[in-house]
Design brief:
single chain; five-stranded antiparallel beta sheet; TATA-Binding Protein
């Protein structure tokens, strides 16, 4: 049985998190709950970890566990990703993937904030992988 590890991420906006996950290939595969729901292991077994935003194991990879994001009382999210799914020999949702998630989360959060202030936002991916946002009224 794979062990879940709590992953520290600095994410506070659930909508921007969902948009980031969609950009990373999970569009139409994300479950969102008001009340936290239990995560499931690779055999479909119910785990003690719970989450409000869940990507079910069948969308994660072979022999995968659910990936979940649990909203904390301060509004931040805690990520639950199994050790297996974080490993290179597993489904590779380790530090590189988590870094990409943080990057696209930042982009989605910035775009949402700019739009709230009346800006039109366009983005362009730079040759070095960075993302450039241009905001216009």
């Amino acid at each position: 049985m794979s062990h879940y590890s709590e992953v520290q991420i600095e994410i506070r906006d659930g909508a921007a998190l969902v948009a980031a996950l969609e950009r990373l290939g999970f569009k139409g595969k994300i479950e969102i709950y008001q009340e936290a729901q239990p995560l499931r292991g690779y055999k479909g077994d119910r785990r003690e970890q719970q989450a409000h935003i869940i990507i079910r194991r069948q969308h994660v990879g072979l022999a995968a566990n659910d990936i979940g994001f649990e909203r904390q009382s301060d509004g931040s999210y805690k990520a639950w990703i199994s050790d297996f799914d974080q490993s290179v020999t597993g489904n590779n949702y380790g530090k590189d993937w988590q870094g990409r998630l943080k990057q696209v989360y930042g982009v989605e959060k910035a775009k949402a904030e700019a739009r709230k202030k009346g800006y039109r936002v366009t983005e362009k991916k730079q040759d070095d992988g960075r993302i450039r946002l241009v905001c216009r009224r």
